[in-house]
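can u pls check wat happens w/ flavin mononucleotide
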Amino acid sequence: MSAFKLYVPGDAAAVALGADRVAKAFEKAFAEKGMDVEIVRNGSRGMHWLEPLVEAVTPQGRVGYGPVKAKHVAGLIDAGLFEGGEHELRLGDVEKIPFFARQQRFTFARVGLVDPASLEDYVAHDGYKGLKRAVELGGPATVEEVFESGLRGRGGAGFPTGIKWRTVAQCPPGQKYIVCNADEGDSGTFADRMIMEGDPFTLIEGMTIAGLAVGATKGYVYCRSEYPHAIKAMNVAIKAARKAGYLGKQIAGSDYDFDMEVREGAGAYVCGEETSLLESIEGKRGLVRAKPPLPAHKGLFGKPTVINNVISLCSVPFILANGAKAYADVGFGRSRGTMPIQLAGNVKYGGLYEIAFGVTLRELVEDVAGGTFTGKPIRACQVGGPLGAYLPEHQFDTPFDYEAFTKIDALIGHGGVVIFDEDVDMARMARFAMEFCAVESCGKCTPCRIGSTRGVETLDKVIANKDRERNLQVVEDLCHTMKLGSLCALGGFTPYPVLSAIKHFPEDFGRGHLSVAAE
Ligand SMILES: Cc1cc2nc3c(=O)[nH]c(=O)nc-3n(C[C@H](O)[C@H](O)[C@H](O)COP(=O)(O)O)c2cc1C
Ligand code: SF4
């Protein structure tokens, strides 16, 4: 064991901000000074404006410093960082920073705290307690536990996870699969990446529990190819879990078998749509399948398949370890538990904020995120990725809750919040939504394939002030057709950002401003 320990995040966001250079500079400086220091490449604590945020283990606990650059390294060592020495970058106990202290970290409890490559560290921080309980409960009771927790899918649709698992469990015994959707294509989202890089064993445990619950022996993580750090972290963890008997035959000494592997995504947004994803794993082009049959009945290679988002599956170990009630006790209405919300765009304090459902958008963007990076007033927020509505200020008191968002024609999706200041041109954002759909459409159905292209052309006319009102009515009519006639949510939900932009920001489209009271 080394005399000292230093945590330098290996998370892709921290690396993008220079964490690798900082780690190398520390390594070199320690070697020159003959200091015996273990450098752990941990996940990010989720406060991106402080990255690279390093933490030194001191006699008083972990002390953070950030944002650190390679040029600060010598000064930090001279300041005595392993005694928590004073320095202009000293943050103290990072868990006491208000952005962190106010969170309810159920799913992200270990991210940033543990060494993502160490199974021993995972187990020392309550890892595999959920699997142990699932083995004791057996398959059917494990499914019911997840149902009772109220967990809903975090990939976008908010479908109850327990019902999905029940459907697969009730299929006749035989080959079944667990597929983890780690395609994370939504703009402004990074929760899946952060947990795979910072705490990969949680996903392995969640998938193993899912396998045990429904009688599946094989799992796939479909991870977007743009996430090389996550793919590497998952592969390292899978190997370690297999070596220790947590994957393979008779996992953790039980009668259950389960193994898994990572598949690299094909680089299309639509490959995050569950049936298109299954096609892609099967080696085919990512084309959406018509439903029914549901993947739960006829999924991967025609077999019953649970397909869940990374965060849905990573919520399961907590639920099993602490009981369904502990999870269901927090939340709002039918939205139970916590949501890892991702604050991005033109934002002062961006990052990952896990909190119980019910928090309002205003608390999030004005208080937690501290408003915009530019310091100008917030004009709009897009919640739920490229298919989510643009919300104006008068809707910021909406609580984070699936039903409350549906009521205002919006969606929570994967929990991404992208903030825009007063300089945003909402007509250009509406055009972007249509263009995104045109570029990413799988091409299977006409309203989406043709409609999105016509949408871009017509919005171009609106922007160029050509017969504006008539063309806006064509856009609205087109949106109606896309909503009702598209096979999947790519074409079906693109109208939401477009119509919300027209409705809430009419002045950007050459229409008079509607008063809030008139809506
Ligand atoms: C165009 C499109 C893209 C999607 N992309 C993702 C994605 O990147 N990740 C994800 O988990 N779900 C995505 N979904 C939702 C999935 O189809 C599916 O609902 C989800 O994987 C189910 O898991 P859950 O119940 O745990 O949310 C997408 C859906 C559509 C229509
Ligand atoms: S809506 Fe678009 S992405 Fe979905 S099936 Fe139709 S063409 Fe493909």
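The chain has 21 helices and 16 strands.
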